Amino acid sequence: MPLLLVELIAVLNLPHALGRSLMLRLGGAALLMIALGYPGEVSTGVWTSIVWWILAMVPFLYIVRALFNEFVGAVERQPETVRPLVERARTLIVVSWSFYPLAYLGGLGAGATGETFLQVGYTVSDLVAKVGLGVFI
Fold first, then answer.
1. Among the four 40, 101, 115, 121, which has the fewest Cβ within 10 Å?
2. pLDDT tens digits for range 31-51
3. What HEC string does the chain produce?
4. Which residue segments constitute the domains of the chain, with CATH numbers given?
């Protein structure tokens, strides 16, 4: 996700100072999100994993909200013919990134089946969020 943030900031066509500030804030939030989510993924206790999931959702939601808000300005800066495309990109990002926390939850407490669900869910999320957005852009 951090590398995807770089691509998104380029697409938003922000002024250099704002883009750099956003990249640092969102990069830090992404690092925090990963650091908070990892203990839950390696935990064997369902409730422990849920607590870490909730903690990791705080920076995740911050990232999604910040990007969504930045896209509002990006949409307004676009020519009328391009605006629907930027709006669709924004929707694609929010929807596809929502697969990640759902895959995390789906993999909890179900042994090998849960682990398979988690890995398949992350793979689908990666394909939609990274490949899908790249093709769309």
1. 115
2. 999 999 999 888 888 899 899
3. CHHHHHHHHHHHCCCHHHHHHHHHHHHHHHHHHHHHHHHHHHCCCHHHHHHHHHHHHHHHHHHHHHHHHHHHHHHHHCCCCCHHHHHHHHHHHHHHHHHHHHHHHHCCCCHHHHHHHHHHHHHHHHHHHHHHHHHHC
4. 2-136 (1.20.1070.10)
